[in-house]
Amino acid sequence: MTRRLSACRALLIGAACLIMLLASHRLAGSASMQRVAGPLLELDHPVPTNHGNWSNNELEQDDSSIAIPFVNRTREIQDVISEQRLLIAQEMEGYNYPDGQHNITAKSLQDLAPESGGQPIRTLVATTWRSGSTFLGDVLNSHPANFYHYEPLLDYEIMQIREEPLASEAVSKLKALLHCNYTGLDRYLTYGQYHIELFAHNTRLWAQCQEHRDLCWSPDFLSPFCRLFPFQSMKVVRLRLKLVEEFLKDPSLNVRVLLLVRDPRGTVQSRKHRVWCPNHPDCAEPALLCSDLVADYSAAVELNAKYPNRFRVVRYEDLSVEPYTGVQDLFDFFGLDFHPSVQQFLDTHTKVDVGGVSSTYRNSKSAPFHWRQDLSHQEVRNIQRVCWPAMERWGYLLAANSTHQHDFNPLGSFSLTLT
Ligand SMILES: *[C@@H]1O[C@H](CO)[C@@H](O)[C@H](O)[C@H]1NC(C)=O
Ligand SMILES: *[C@@H]1O[C@H](CO)[C@@H](O)[C@H](O)[C@H]1NC(C)=O
Ligand SMILES: *[C@@H]1O[C@H](CO)[C@@H](O)[C@H](O)[C@H]1NC(C)=O
Ligand SMILES: *[C@@H]1O[C@H](CO)[C@@H](O)[C@H](O)[C@H]1NC(C)=O
Ligand SMILES: *[C@@H]1O[C@H](CO)[C@@H](O)[C@H](O)[C@H]1NC(C)=O
Protein backbone atom coordinates (compact mmCIF):
# COMPACT_ATOMS: atom_id res chain seq x y z
CA MET A 1 0.00 0.00 0.00
CA THR A 2 2.71 2.47 1.05
CA ARG A 3 4.81 1.17 -1.80
CA ARG A 4 2.02 1.81 -4.15
CA LEU A 5 1.59 5.29 -2.79
CA SER A 6 5.25 6.13 -3.15
CA ALA A 7 5.30 4.72 -6.66
CA CYS A 8 2.34 6.89 -7.37
CA ARG A 9 4.11 9.86 -5.86
CA ALA A 10 7.22 9.19 -7.94
CA LEU A 11 5.06 9.01 -11.01
CA LEU A 12 3.44 12.29 -10.17
CA ILE A 13 6.79 13.96 -9.56
CA GLY A 14 8.02 12.55 -12.83
CA ALA A 15 5.02 13.91 -14.67
CA ALA A 16 5.42 17.29 -13.04
CA CYS A 17 9.10 17.38 -14.04
CA LEU A 18 8.20 16.47 -17.60
CA ILE A 19 5.67 19.25 -17.75
CA MET A 20 8.19 21.73 -16.44
CA LEU A 21 10.80 20.50 -18.87
CA LEU A 22 8.40 20.87 -21.78
CA ALA A 23 7.32 24.27 -20.62
CA SER A 24 10.89 25.53 -20.28
CA HIS A 25 11.69 24.18 -23.74
CA ARG A 26 8.77 25.94 -25.18
CA LEU A 27 9.68 29.20 -23.54
CA ALA A 28 13.26 28.90 -24.71
CA GLY A 29 12.06 27.99 -28.19
CA SER A 30 9.73 30.90 -28.30
CA ALA A 31 12.36 33.33 -27.11
CA SER A 32 14.90 32.26 -29.69
CA MET A 33 12.39 32.17 -32.51
CA GLN A 34 11.36 35.60 -31.56
CA ARG A 35 14.91 36.82 -31.86
CA VAL A 36 15.19 35.35 -35.33
CA ALA A 37 11.75 36.08 -36.58
CA GLY A 38 10.97 39.25 -34.71
CA PRO A 39 12.33 41.63 -37.33
CA LEU A 40 10.36 39.76 -39.98
CA LEU A 41 7.31 41.51 -38.86
CA GLU A 42 6.35 45.04 -39.23
CA LEU A 43 7.41 45.58 -35.70
CA ASP A 44 8.11 49.23 -35.59
CA HIS A 45 6.62 49.89 -32.26
CA PRO A 46 8.39 49.09 -29.06
CA VAL A 47 6.53 46.18 -27.63
CA PRO A 48 6.22 45.92 -23.85
CA THR A 49 9.57 44.57 -22.77
CA ASN A 50 8.46 42.15 -20.13
CA HIS A 51 6.89 39.67 -22.52
CA GLY A 52 8.68 36.39 -22.91
CA ASN A 53 9.74 36.71 -19.30
CA TRP A 54 7.41 34.04 -18.23
CA SER A 55 9.95 32.38 -16.09
CA ASN A 56 8.16 32.63 -12.79
CA ASN A 57 5.85 30.42 -10.76
CA GLU A 58 5.79 26.87 -12.02
CA LEU A 59 9.34 26.88 -13.27
CA GLU A 60 10.62 27.95 -9.91
CA GLN A 61 8.22 25.77 -7.99
CA ASP A 62 9.76 23.65 -5.33
CA ASP A 63 9.91 20.04 -6.53
CA SER A 64 8.71 18.60 -3.25
CA SER A 65 5.43 20.44 -3.35
CA ILE A 66 3.82 18.67 -6.24
CA ALA A 67 0.46 20.20 -5.50
CA ILE A 68 -0.28 21.66 -8.89
CA PRO A 69 -3.24 23.86 -8.08
CA PHE A 70 -6.46 22.95 -9.78
CA VAL A 71 -7.55 25.81 -11.95
CA ASN A 72 -11.13 25.92 -13.05
CA ARG A 73 -10.59 27.17 -16.57
CA THR A 74 -14.25 27.97 -17.23
CA ARG A 75 -14.27 30.06 -14.09
CA GLU A 76 -11.02 31.79 -15.01
CA ILE A 77 -12.41 32.76 -18.42
CA GLN A 78 -15.61 34.04 -16.87
CA ASP A 79 -13.63 36.13 -14.39
CA VAL A 80 -11.41 37.72 -17.01
CA ILE A 81 -14.41 38.48 -19.21
CA SER A 82 -16.26 40.12 -16.32
CA GLU A 83 -13.23 42.15 -15.39
CA GLN A 84 -12.75 43.34 -18.95
CA ARG A 85 -16.44 44.19 -19.25
CA LEU A 86 -15.98 46.56 -16.33
CA LEU A 87 -12.82 48.05 -17.80
CA ILE A 88 -14.65 48.72 -21.04
CA ALA A 89 -17.54 50.34 -19.22
CA GLN A 90 -15.02 52.58 -17.46
CA GLU A 91 -13.30 53.53 -20.68
CA MET A 92 -16.66 54.34 -22.23
CA GLU A 93 -17.86 56.61 -19.45
CA GLY A 94 -19.02 59.88 -20.93
CA TYR A 95 -18.43 58.65 -24.46
CA ASN A 96 -19.95 60.70 -27.22
CA TYR A 97 -22.01 57.99 -29.02
CA PRO A 98 -22.81 58.55 -32.70
CA ASP A 99 -26.59 58.61 -32.10
CA GLY A 100 -27.28 59.25 -35.76
CA GLN A 101 -24.09 61.07 -36.68
CA HIS A 102 -21.92 59.47 -39.36
CA ASN A 103 -24.87 57.30 -40.38
CA ILE A 104 -24.58 55.24 -37.21
CA THR A 105 -27.57 54.97 -34.90
CA ALA A 106 -25.85 53.52 -31.82
CA LYS A 107 -26.53 55.43 -28.60
CA SER A 108 -25.12 53.03 -26.03
CA LEU A 109 -22.46 50.47 -25.40
CA GLN A 110 -25.08 47.77 -25.78
CA ASP A 111 -25.83 48.92 -29.32
CA LEU A 112 -22.19 48.41 -30.24
CA ALA A 113 -20.94 45.41 -28.28
CA PRO A 114 -21.28 42.12 -30.18
CA GLU A 115 -21.93 40.20 -26.95
CA SER A 116 -25.16 42.12 -26.45
CA GLY A 117 -26.19 41.75 -30.09
CA GLY A 118 -24.78 45.13 -31.07
CA GLN A 119 -23.08 46.06 -34.30
CA PRO A 120 -19.53 47.21 -33.51
CA ILE A 121 -17.83 50.00 -35.41
CA ARG A 122 -15.37 48.13 -37.59
CA THR A 123 -12.45 49.80 -39.30
CA LEU A 124 -10.01 48.28 -41.73
CA VAL A 125 -6.78 49.89 -42.87
CA ALA A 126 -5.29 48.32 -46.00
CA THR A 127 -1.76 49.15 -47.09
CA THR A 128 1.65 47.57 -47.60
CA TRP A 129 4.85 47.30 -45.56
CA ARG A 130 6.46 50.53 -44.40
CA SER A 131 3.66 52.87 -45.34
CA GLY A 132 2.95 54.39 -41.97
CA SER A 133 0.33 51.91 -40.89
CA THR A 134 1.91 51.24 -37.52
CA PHE A 135 1.31 54.85 -36.61
CA LEU A 136 -2.24 54.85 -37.89
CA GLY A 137 -3.00 51.51 -36.28
CA ASP A 138 -1.84 52.82 -32.93
CA VAL A 139 -3.85 56.02 -33.36
CA LEU A 140 -6.99 53.92 -33.86
CA ASN A 141 -6.09 51.78 -30.88
CA SER A 142 -5.74 54.89 -28.70
CA HIS A 143 -9.52 55.26 -29.01
CA PRO A 144 -11.33 53.87 -25.95
CA ALA A 145 -12.43 50.23 -25.88
CA ASN A 146 -10.82 49.24 -29.15
CA PHE A 147 -9.89 45.68 -30.03
CA TYR A 148 -6.98 45.74 -32.47
CA HIS A 149 -6.60 42.91 -34.96
CA TYR A 150 -2.99 43.68 -35.76
CA GLU A 151 -1.81 42.37 -39.11
CA PRO A 152 -3.67 39.07 -38.95
CA LEU A 153 -1.86 37.79 -42.04
CA LEU A 154 1.54 37.76 -40.32
CA ASP A 155 1.71 34.00 -40.66
CA TYR A 156 1.94 34.34 -44.46
CA GLU A 157 5.32 35.98 -43.84
CA ILE A 158 6.78 38.27 -46.51
CA MET A 159 4.39 38.01 -49.41
CA GLN A 160 1.50 39.84 -51.01
CA ILE A 161 -1.87 38.20 -51.52
CA ARG A 162 -3.28 39.32 -54.84
CA GLU A 163 -5.38 36.44 -56.13
CA GLU A 164 -6.30 32.80 -55.70
CA PRO A 165 -5.36 30.31 -54.41
CA LEU A 166 -4.56 32.27 -51.25
CA ALA A 167 -7.16 35.00 -51.57
CA SER A 168 -10.29 33.14 -50.41
CA GLU A 169 -8.58 31.57 -47.47
CA ALA A 170 -7.10 34.88 -46.33
CA VAL A 171 -10.36 36.77 -46.77
CA SER A 172 -12.41 34.21 -44.88
CA LYS A 173 -9.90 34.22 -42.05
CA LEU A 174 -10.10 38.00 -41.74
CA LYS A 175 -13.90 37.88 -41.84
CA ALA A 176 -13.91 35.33 -39.05
CA LEU A 177 -11.72 37.60 -36.95
CA LEU A 178 -13.91 40.62 -37.62
CA HIS A 179 -16.75 38.47 -36.30
CA CYS A 180 -14.66 37.45 -33.29
CA ASN A 181 -14.80 33.83 -34.32
CA TYR A 182 -11.45 32.27 -33.49
CA THR A 183 -12.59 28.69 -34.05
CA GLY A 184 -10.60 26.99 -36.79
CA LEU A 185 -7.84 29.61 -36.86
CA ASP A 186 -5.30 27.16 -35.48
CA ARG A 187 -2.42 28.20 -37.70
CA TYR A 188 -2.90 31.85 -36.80
CA LEU A 189 -3.08 31.10 -33.10
CA THR A 190 -0.08 28.78 -33.10
CA TYR A 191 1.92 31.38 -34.98
CA GLY A 192 0.94 33.95 -32.38
CA GLN A 193 2.40 31.89 -29.55
CA TYR A 194 5.83 32.19 -31.10
CA HIS A 195 5.49 35.70 -32.53
CA ILE A 196 4.19 37.80 -29.73
CA GLU A 197 3.84 40.93 -31.86
CA LEU A 198 0.70 39.38 -33.31
CA PHE A 199 -1.12 40.18 -30.07
CA ALA A 200 1.15 42.66 -28.32
CA HIS A 201 -0.19 45.62 -30.32
CA ASN A 202 -3.67 44.72 -29.15
CA THR A 203 -2.96 46.38 -25.84
CA ARG A 204 -6.19 45.50 -24.05
CA LEU A 205 -5.92 41.84 -24.95
CA TRP A 206 -2.20 41.79 -24.22
CA ALA A 207 -2.65 43.11 -20.71
CA GLN A 208 -4.85 40.09 -19.96
CA CYS A 209 -2.50 37.70 -21.76
CA GLN A 210 0.29 38.65 -19.42
CA GLU A 211 -1.82 37.75 -16.43
CA HIS A 212 -3.48 34.68 -17.98
CA ARG A 213 -1.07 33.23 -20.43
CA ASP A 214 -2.79 29.87 -20.49
CA LEU A 215 -5.89 31.49 -21.99
CA CYS A 216 -4.31 33.89 -24.44
CA TRP A 217 -4.30 31.78 -27.61
CA SER A 218 -7.45 29.76 -27.04
CA PRO A 219 -10.60 30.30 -29.06
CA ASP A 220 -12.78 29.58 -26.03
CA PHE A 221 -11.31 32.66 -24.39
CA LEU A 222 -10.59 34.88 -27.40
CA SER A 223 -14.01 34.70 -29.02
CA PRO A 224 -16.05 35.89 -26.04
CA PHE A 225 -13.31 38.36 -25.06
CA CYS A 226 -13.31 39.96 -28.50
CA ARG A 227 -17.11 40.11 -28.48
CA LEU A 228 -17.00 42.51 -25.55
CA PHE A 229 -15.49 45.28 -27.63
CA PRO A 230 -17.61 47.99 -29.28
CA PHE A 231 -14.76 49.04 -31.60
CA GLN A 232 -12.88 46.61 -33.79
CA SER A 233 -9.94 47.80 -35.82
CA MET A 234 -7.80 45.84 -38.24
CA LYS A 235 -4.81 46.68 -40.36
CA VAL A 236 -3.46 44.51 -43.14
CA VAL A 237 -0.30 45.00 -45.18
CA ARG A 238 -0.46 41.81 -47.25
CA LEU A 239 -3.85 41.93 -48.97
CA ARG A 240 -4.27 43.99 -52.13
CA LEU A 241 -7.20 46.36 -52.35
CA LYS A 242 -9.15 44.49 -55.04
CA LEU A 243 -9.70 41.69 -52.51
CA VAL A 244 -10.78 44.11 -49.80
CA GLU A 245 -14.06 44.59 -51.63
CA GLU A 246 -15.12 41.25 -50.16
CA PHE A 247 -15.42 43.03 -46.81
CA LEU A 248 -17.30 46.05 -48.13
CA LYS A 249 -19.75 43.73 -49.87
CA ASP A 250 -20.60 41.86 -46.71
CA PRO A 251 -23.47 43.62 -44.91
CA SER A 252 -22.91 41.60 -41.73
CA LEU A 253 -19.54 43.32 -41.32
CA ASN A 254 -20.60 46.86 -42.09
CA VAL A 255 -16.94 47.76 -42.18
CA ARG A 256 -15.37 51.07 -43.23
CA VAL A 257 -12.17 50.74 -45.19
CA LEU A 258 -9.22 53.06 -45.54
CA LEU A 259 -6.50 52.60 -48.13
CA LEU A 260 -3.26 54.11 -46.89
CA VAL A 261 -0.86 55.07 -49.68
CA ARG A 262 2.76 56.22 -49.46
CA ASP A 263 5.26 57.62 -51.92
CA PRO A 264 7.14 54.54 -53.21
CA ARG A 265 10.45 56.35 -52.76
CA GLY A 266 9.70 56.71 -49.05
CA THR A 267 8.55 53.11 -48.79
CA VAL A 268 11.65 51.78 -50.53
CA GLN A 269 13.93 53.87 -48.36
CA SER A 270 12.19 52.68 -45.22
CA ARG A 271 12.32 49.03 -46.30
CA LYS A 272 16.07 49.28 -46.84
CA HIS A 273 16.47 49.37 -43.09
CA ARG A 274 14.62 46.10 -42.62
CA VAL A 275 16.61 42.88 -42.59
CA TRP A 276 13.59 40.80 -43.50
CA CYS A 277 12.97 42.51 -46.78
CA PRO A 278 15.81 41.84 -49.27
CA ASN A 279 15.22 38.19 -50.11
CA HIS A 280 11.54 38.60 -50.81
CA PRO A 281 10.64 40.09 -54.19
CA ASP A 282 7.24 41.35 -52.99
CA CYS A 283 9.07 43.52 -50.52
CA ALA A 284 12.40 44.20 -52.21
CA GLU A 285 11.37 44.97 -55.80
CA PRO A 286 10.19 48.53 -56.47
CA ALA A 287 8.55 47.27 -59.65
CA LEU A 288 6.27 44.97 -57.67
CA LEU A 289 5.50 47.61 -55.07
CA CYS A 290 4.54 49.98 -57.85
CA SER A 291 2.48 47.55 -59.90
CA ASP A 292 0.54 46.96 -56.67
CA LEU A 293 0.10 50.73 -56.30
CA VAL A 294 -1.25 50.93 -59.84
CA ALA A 295 -3.63 48.02 -59.25
CA ASP A 296 -4.72 49.56 -55.94
CA TYR A 297 -5.45 52.81 -57.76
CA SER A 298 -7.79 51.07 -60.21
CA ALA A 299 -9.50 49.25 -57.37
CA ALA A 300 -9.75 52.51 -55.40
CA VAL A 301 -11.49 54.30 -58.28
CA GLU A 302 -14.04 51.50 -58.39
CA LEU A 303 -14.60 51.26 -54.64
CA ASN A 304 -14.85 55.02 -54.34
CA ALA A 305 -17.71 55.01 -56.84
CA LYS A 306 -19.44 51.97 -55.35
CA TYR A 307 -19.05 52.66 -51.63
CA PRO A 308 -18.61 56.42 -51.32
CA ASN A 309 -19.50 56.43 -47.62
CA ARG A 310 -17.54 53.40 -46.54
CA PHE A 311 -14.33 53.70 -48.53
CA ARG A 312 -11.63 56.34 -48.26
CA VAL A 313 -8.03 56.88 -49.31
CA VAL A 314 -5.38 58.83 -47.49
CA ARG A 315 -1.75 59.47 -48.33
CA TYR A 316 0.65 58.96 -45.45
CA GLU A 317 2.39 62.22 -46.29
CA ASP A 318 -0.80 64.28 -46.11
CA LEU A 319 -1.69 62.69 -42.79
CA SER A 320 1.78 63.34 -41.39
CA VAL A 321 1.90 66.98 -42.38
CA GLU A 322 -1.46 67.67 -40.75
CA PRO A 323 -1.89 64.92 -38.16
CA TYR A 324 -4.63 66.61 -36.11
CA THR A 325 -7.00 67.59 -38.86
CA GLY A 326 -6.06 64.46 -40.80
CA VAL A 327 -6.89 62.11 -37.95
CA GLN A 328 -10.02 64.08 -37.10
CA ASP A 329 -11.25 63.68 -40.69
CA LEU A 330 -10.53 59.98 -40.60
CA PHE A 331 -12.32 59.52 -37.30
CA ASP A 332 -15.33 61.32 -38.77
CA PHE A 333 -15.25 58.99 -41.72
CA PHE A 334 -14.97 55.90 -39.51
CA GLY A 335 -17.71 57.11 -37.18
CA LEU A 336 -15.35 57.34 -34.20
CA ASP A 337 -15.24 60.09 -31.62
CA PHE A 338 -12.08 62.19 -31.60
CA HIS A 339 -11.74 61.36 -27.92
CA PRO A 340 -9.29 63.11 -25.54
CA SER A 341 -7.29 59.87 -25.37
CA VAL A 342 -6.70 60.11 -29.12
CA GLN A 343 -5.69 63.71 -28.84
CA GLN A 344 -3.27 62.79 -26.11
CA PHE A 345 -1.78 60.07 -28.28
CA LEU A 346 -1.18 62.58 -31.04
CA ASP A 347 0.31 65.07 -28.60
CA THR A 348 2.88 62.54 -27.49
CA HIS A 349 3.58 60.84 -30.83
CA THR A 350 3.78 63.48 -33.50
CA LYS A 351 6.11 66.11 -32.15
CA VAL A 352 9.33 64.66 -30.88
CA ASP A 353 11.91 62.46 -32.53
CA VAL A 354 12.85 59.67 -30.17
CA GLY A 355 13.05 55.92 -30.37
CA GLY A 356 14.78 55.32 -33.71
CA VAL A 357 13.47 53.66 -36.85
CA SER A 358 11.12 51.33 -35.03
CA SER A 359 9.23 53.95 -33.18
CA THR A 360 6.00 55.72 -33.76
CA TYR A 361 7.39 58.49 -31.57
CA ARG A 362 8.80 60.85 -34.14
CA ASN A 363 8.39 64.16 -35.75
CA SER A 364 5.55 63.31 -38.06
CA LYS A 365 6.16 66.25 -40.36
CA SER A 366 9.66 65.24 -41.43
CA ALA A 367 9.41 61.43 -41.20
CA PRO A 368 7.76 60.86 -44.61
CA PHE A 369 10.38 62.87 -46.49
CA HIS A 370 13.64 61.38 -45.21
CA TRP A 371 14.13 59.55 -48.47
CA ARG A 372 15.08 62.84 -50.15
CA GLN A 373 18.28 62.88 -48.11
CA ASP A 374 18.80 59.17 -47.52
CA LEU A 375 18.54 57.93 -51.10
CA SER A 376 21.10 58.88 -53.72
CA HIS A 377 19.72 60.52 -56.80
CA GLN A 378 20.69 57.41 -58.76
CA GLU A 379 18.56 55.27 -56.45
CA VAL A 380 15.68 57.68 -56.84
CA ARG A 381 15.99 57.57 -60.62
CA ASN A 382 15.93 53.78 -60.53
CA ILE A 383 12.71 53.82 -58.53
CA GLN A 384 11.12 56.52 -60.66
CA ARG A 385 11.95 54.59 -63.84
CA VAL A 386 9.64 51.73 -62.79
CA CYS A 387 7.32 53.69 -60.54
CA TRP A 388 6.30 56.72 -62.57
CA PRO A 389 2.93 55.23 -63.57
CA ALA A 390 2.09 54.68 -59.89
CA MET A 391 3.44 58.09 -58.90
CA GLU A 392 1.46 59.82 -61.60
CA ARG A 393 -1.78 58.22 -60.40
CA TRP A 394 -1.18 58.98 -56.73
CA GLY A 395 0.10 62.52 -57.29
CA TYR A 396 3.77 62.13 -56.42
CA LEU A 397 6.11 64.41 -58.40
CA LEU A 398 9.37 63.31 -59.98
CA ALA A 399 12.70 64.53 -58.63
CA ALA A 400 14.48 66.06 -61.60
CA ASN A 401 18.05 66.07 -60.33
CA SER A 402 20.01 65.79 -57.13
CA THR A 403 19.61 69.43 -56.07
CA HIS A 404 15.91 69.38 -56.83
CA GLN A 405 15.49 66.10 -54.92
CA HIS A 406 16.87 67.59 -51.73
CA ASP A 407 14.38 70.37 -51.26
CA PHE A 408 11.36 69.98 -53.52
CA ASN A 409 7.84 69.23 -52.30
CA PRO A 410 7.05 65.82 -53.78
CA LEU A 411 3.32 66.15 -53.17
CA GLY A 412 1.10 66.91 -56.15
CA SER A 413 -2.60 66.21 -56.25
CA PHE A 414 -4.54 63.11 -57.19
CA SER A 415 -8.12 62.27 -57.90
CA LEU A 416 -10.14 59.08 -57.77
CA THR A 417 -12.66 60.24 -60.32
CA LEU A 418 -11.68 59.46 -63.86
CA THR A 419 -12.14 62.43 -66.16
C1 LIG B 1 11.31 38.60 -15.01
O1 LIG B 1 10.24 38.87 -14.13
C2 LIG B 1 10.63 38.85 -12.76
C3 LIG B 1 9.39 38.96 -11.89
O2 LIG B 1 8.26 39.32 -12.65
C4 LIG B 1 11.62 39.97 -12.52
O3 LIG B 1 12.02 40.00 -11.16
C5 LIG B 1 12.84 39.76 -13.39
O4 LIG B 1 13.74 40.85 -13.25
C6 LIG B 1 12.41 39.65 -14.86
N1 LIG B 1 13.56 39.31 -15.67
C7 LIG B 1 13.83 39.92 -16.83
C8 LIG B 1 15.00 39.42 -17.57
O5 LIG B 1 13.12 40.83 -17.27
C1 LIG C 1 -15.95 25.58 -12.83
O1 LIG C 1 -16.61 26.84 -12.80
C2 LIG C 1 -17.85 26.82 -13.46
C3 LIG C 1 -18.36 28.25 -13.53
O2 LIG C 1 -18.17 28.95 -12.38
C4 LIG C 1 -18.79 25.92 -12.68
O3 LIG C 1 -20.07 25.90 -13.32
C5 LIG C 1 -18.21 24.51 -12.69
O4 LIG C 1 -19.01 23.66 -11.90
C6 LIG C 1 -16.79 24.52 -12.13
N1 LIG C 1 -16.19 23.21 -12.37
C7 LIG C 1 -15.56 22.55 -11.42
C8 LIG C 1 -15.02 21.24 -11.78
O5 LIG C 1 -15.40 23.03 -10.30
C1 LIG D 1 -17.01 29.95 -36.41
O1 LIG D 1 -16.19 29.41 -37.42
C2 LIG D 1 -16.28 28.00 -37.51
C3 LIG D 1 -15.23 27.53 -38.50
O2 LIG D 1 -15.32 28.22 -39.70
C4 LIG D 1 -17.71 27.62 -37.91
O3 LIG D 1 -17.81 26.24 -38.01
C5 LIG D 1 -18.65 28.16 -36.86
O4 LIG D 1 -19.98 27.93 -37.26
C6 LIG D 1 -18.46 29.65 -36.64
N1 LIG D 1 -19.23 30.06 -35.48
C7 LIG D 1 -20.08 31.07 -35.50
C8 LIG D 1 -20.77 31.38 -34.23
O5 LIG D 1 -20.30 31.70 -36.52
C1 LIG E 1 -25.93 57.13 -45.07
O1 LIG E 1 -26.39 55.90 -45.61
C2 LIG E 1 -27.25 56.03 -46.71
C3 LIG E 1 -27.73 54.65 -47.10
O2 LIG E 1 -26.75 53.69 -46.97
C4 LIG E 1 -26.53 56.73 -47.85
O3 LIG E 1 -27.38 56.90 -48.94
C5 LIG E 1 -26.04 58.08 -47.35
O4 LIG E 1 -25.30 58.75 -48.35
C6 LIG E 1 -25.16 57.91 -46.12
N1 LIG E 1 -24.73 59.20 -45.61
C7 LIG E 1 -23.52 59.41 -45.09
C8 LIG E 1 -23.22 60.80 -44.61
O5 LIG E 1 -22.68 58.54 -44.98
C1 LIG F 1 17.37 70.64 -61.48
O1 LIG F 1 15.99 70.58 -61.69
C2 LIG F 1 15.32 71.80 -61.46
C3 LIG F 1 13.83 71.54 -61.56
O2 LIG F 1 13.49 70.92 -62.75
C4 LIG F 1 15.81 72.84 -62.45
O3 LIG F 1 15.17 74.07 -62.21
C5 LIG F 1 17.30 73.01 -62.27
O4 LIG F 1 17.81 73.88 -63.26
C6 LIG F 1 18.02 71.66 -62.39
N1 LIG F 1 19.39 71.81 -62.01
C7 LIG F 1 20.38 71.27 -62.71
C8 LIG F 1 21.77 71.48 -62.17
O5 LIG F 1 20.18 70.62 -63.72
Whole-number radius of gyration? Answer: 24 Å
The proportion of residues in beta strands is: 5-15%
In the predicted model, the low-confidence regions spanning at least 5 consecutive residues are 21-62, 354-359
Which sheet architecture does the biggest sheet show? 5 strands, parallel
Based on the coordinates given, report the CATH architecture.
3-Layer(aba) Sandwich
Cα end-to-end separation: 92 Å
Mean pLDDT over the full residue set: 83
The overall number of domains is 1
Describe this structure in words.
- The protein is of the alpha/beta class.
- It has one domain (74-372): Rossmann fold, CATH 3.40.50.
- 50% of the residues lie in helices and 7% in strands.
- The protein has 19 helices and five strands.
- A five-stranded parallel sheet has the order 2-3-1-4-5, with helices on both faces.
- The longest helix has 36 residues, at 2-37.
- The radius of gyration is 24 Å and the shape is globular.
- Mean pLDDT is 83; it is low at 21-62 and 354-359.
- The structure holds 2-acetamido-2-deoxy-beta-D-glucopyranose (5 copies).
- Residues 400-401, 403-404 line the site of one 2-acetamido-2-deoxy-beta-D-glucopyranose (NAG).
Summarize this structure as a short list of keywords or feature phrases.
five-stranded parallel beta sheet, Rossmann fold, 5 strands, single chain, alpha/beta, 419 residues, binds 2-acetamido-2-deoxy-beta-D-glucopyranose, 50% helix
In short:
Helices cover 50% and strands 7% of the residues. With 419 residues, it is an alpha/beta fold.
Please specify the SSE layout and strand pairing.
Blueprint: H1 2-37, H2 73-91, H3 109-112, E1 121-126, H4 133-141, E2 146-150, H5 166-178, H6 186-194, H7 197-200, H8 203-211, H9 219-226, E3 231-236, H10 241-249, E4 255-261, H11 264-272, H12 281-284, H13 286-306, E5 311-315, H14 316-321, H15 323-334, H16 340-349, H17 371-374, H18 377-394, H19 402-407
Parallel strand pairs: 1-3, 1-4, 2-3, 4-5
Helix pairs in contact: 2-9, 13-18
The protein binds 2-acetamido-2-deoxy-beta-D-glucopyranose (NAG) (5 copies).
One 2-acetamido-2-deoxy-beta-D-glucopyranose (NAG) binds at residues 72, 74-75, 78.
Pfam families: Sulfotransfer_1
Keywords: Signal
Domain Sulfotransferase: 122-394
